[in-house]
Amino acid sequence: MSDKYGGVDFSVPPSKRHGVAVKGEIVDNMNRRMPEFPALLIDALEELHIVTRRFFSETTNQSAIIVGNHAFNDLDNFIDCILSADGRSAARASRSLFEHLVNYCEVMSSPKAAERYLEHAVVTADLLGNLTHGLHYLRGTPHKRERSRLAKLRRESLRPLKAALSKFGPHFRRDWSSRNLHDRAVAHGHDSHYDTYRLLSQVTHGSCGGVLGSHAAIAGQAVHRTGPSLELAVLAYLEGFTFFREFAREIDQRQHIETRKLVESLEALLRYWPRYRQVLTEIDALIWPESPPPGPVAIMALYAGDRIRWFFWEPGLNRMKLAYPPKGHEWLEERFRQHAHAGNIEIPPDMKGRPITSSVSGVQVTPQEGAQWFAASGILALGAQPAAPWLISE
């Protein structure tokens, strides 16, 4: 673990340490509270293995095989996200599982749709061929080889792309299907899940409402959290397993590949959702800070001989870094020296060579390149705060 966290008291919940948490402790708390969860997953994965092997061995519809490739891989990613409470990634994977469900039904029920789905690969090839912005990072032989590879992709995709656009129309470049996802979902009886899909899409599209679980109002202030969204993990768990259960049922009905046991194991996971929800809700309550966490503070430190240095202080971590002086620092430093020499600062008796410090309101400083985190106690007197905020407006 980075020394940045060396001043954090991990013996108390994150709510009592300004919301500072590490992913490992969240997962550890989940495992302790849900010891039976891995067994449920193992049962589902055992059945999934059989269905996956039969699907790729027995499916003759080439479009359906590609859709299945997406679905089985996204389920794998989805489960990893659920295990780590990575709600944002789980929401994206869950959303994709709905699309795979609908697309599978579409290509299995319409030869024309299956044809369009396969031919859309040429659009991907054209996009890849024009993805040249990475070339300027390459030099010499790697640059030449990559440039030639991309040029070859563009040449080889040009004629089939023109043919596909002539055959299916200009909108084919944007979407392989002739009708939108909602209409496809309605046609195959899965439209009841469409609004959930729209909700999950807010994370992918960066909509205002997509910050579920990472934004809250605490004591009248907006608090933004980075890291796992447990609230979204709870939502995605329910929907992702529901979407894939329906996908498994469609495979059984359309291809006569036995998925009954897989469906039963997925239903067992869905019945476990209330416990997963309870656990993550409890953990989430222990992560959000009890009060809005303090922001970083610019610290001006006056040493013997009137030398002044600036520091970037992170109160939530109780850590500091040496910082570059801010713009216009000369007059700020001079006023601080005058303030200190005038005897306006009460100096604690246990300074032990520490400098006289002041937090500077309204000023931001940037940590120096290569500066290391160190304990704030190395600068600040134990049990003391910097001299009561020295306002630059004084």
Can you put this structure into words, describing what you see?
It is a single chain. By secondary structure, the chain is an alpha+beta fold. 54% of the residues lie in helices and 10% in strands. It has 13 helices and eight strands. It has helices at residues 23-33, 37-58, 62-84, 87-109, 111-119, 121-129, 140-168, 181-187, 194-205, 230-255, 260-271, 273-287, 329-341; strands at 215-218, 221-224, 297-302, 308-314, 319-323, 356-361, 374-375, 387-391. The strands form two sheets. It has a six-stranded mixed beta sheet. Strands 1-2 form a two-stranded antiparallel sheet. The longest helix is centred in the middle third of the chain and has 29 residues, at 140-168. The two termini are 42 Å apart. The model is unreliable at 388-394 (pLDDT under 50).
List the keywords.
394 residues; alpha+beta
Summarize the structure.
By secondary structure, the chain is an alpha+beta fold. The protein has helices at residues 23-33, 37-58, 62-84, 87-109, 111-119, 121-129, 140-168, 181-187, 194-205, 230-255, 260-271, 273-287, 329-341, and strands spanning 215-218, 221-224, 297-302, 308-314, 319-323, 356-361, 374-375, 387-391.
Structural class: alpha+beta
Strand content: 5-15%
What is the number of strand segments? 8
Shape: elongated
Count of DSSP helices? 13
Q: Give helix % range.
A: 40-55%
Cα gyration radius (Å): 29 Å
Strand order of the largest sheet: 7-5-4-3-6-8
Provide the residue-averaged pLDDT. Answer: 92
Unreliable segments of 5+ consecutive residues: 388-394
H and E order: HHHHHHHHHEEHHHEEEHEEE
Q: What composes the largest sheet?
A: 6 strands, mixed
N- to C-terminal separation?
A: 42 Å
